[in-house]
Specification:
There is one protein chain. The chain has about 120 residues and is mainly beta. It is built from no helices and eleven strands. Helices cover about 0% and strands about 50% of the residues. The strands form two sheets. Strands 2, 4, 5, 6, 9, 10 and 11 form a seven-stranded mixed β-sheet that branches. Strands 1-3-8-7 form a four-stranded antiparallel β-sheet, with no helix packed on it. A hairpin with a 5-residue loop joins strand 5 and strand 6.
């Protein structure tokens, strides 16, 4: 079992920054794939960034160069640093874990554990 709790969302003007965090408890999270996803009103949930158990990262094209995913093994915390935010980044952001995957991250449907989400709103 893995429990995930996100924090750090809020409202910010375009061009601003936010840092999301995801506290993980249960199985040591650093040993498997973790990711950030988001869902805007009326849209499907989409992947934002993932990090494997080995620390390799991937990003959606829409956030490359602006967002950075990282993890702190000592704190069992996953982060998403979001810079140069745009109104189109407005969404509910979710942390997710895929404990069965280590060397690579699977499709969204194979992430078995999800947090409750944290809202990010970017105004123009």
């Amino acid at each position: 079992q893995v429990q995930l709790v996100e924090a750090g969302g809020g409202s910010v003007q375009a061009g601003g920054s936010l840092r999301l965090s995801c506290d993980a408890s249960g199985r040591t999270y650093s040993s498997y794939c973790m990711g950030w996803f988001r869902q805007a009103p009326g849209k499907e949930r989409e992947g934002v960034a993932t990090i494997t158990g080995e620390g390799r990262t991937t990003y959606a094209d829409s956030v490359k160069g602006r967002f950075t995913i990282s993890k702190d093994g000592a704190k069992n915390t996953l982060y998403l640093q979001m810079n140069s935010l745009k109104p189109e980044d407005t969404a509910m952001y979710y942390c997710a874990a895929a404990p069965l995957f280590w060397a690579y991250c699977p499709a969204q449907t194979d992430f078995g554990y999800w947090g409750q989400g944290t809202q990010v709103t970017v105004s123009s």
